[in-house]
Specification:
Helix content is about 65%, strand content about 0%. The chain is elongated and about 80 Å long. The protein is built from four helices and no strands. It is an all-alpha fold and about 90 residues long.
């Protein structure tokens, strides 16, 4: 017996309201699967912005290596005043 036949046979024993829930669930799964495919396709078609490309060409993408949490230490990591003769 195929999977479709098994689903059909099992659905015959269900009350109408439960069978409707099964149909809704199948539609939900199909929609979720279709949207994941769309998201993956969209992600593959995204091209880097001109700003990103300019930063990458300037060597700014990936120029700072750190394992720290930059949300709290970014000022220290990005402080280049020593290069300009200023001590802060």
């Amino acid at each position: 017996m195929s999977l479709a036949d098994t689903i059909y046979q099992k659905s015959l024993d269900l009350p109408i309201d439960k069978a409707t829930e099964v149909i809704d669930f199948i539609d939900f799964i199909k929609m979720r699967t279709d949207s994941k495919t769309t998201i993956q396709t969209d992600a593959q078609n995204i091209k880097p912005s001109n700003l990103y490309q300019a930063f990458e060409q300037a060597g700014l993408i990936g120029c700072l290596k750190t394992d720290e949490q930059l949300s709290t230490t970014y000022k220290q990591k990005l402080n280049f005043s020593h290069k300009h003769g200023k001590n802060t």
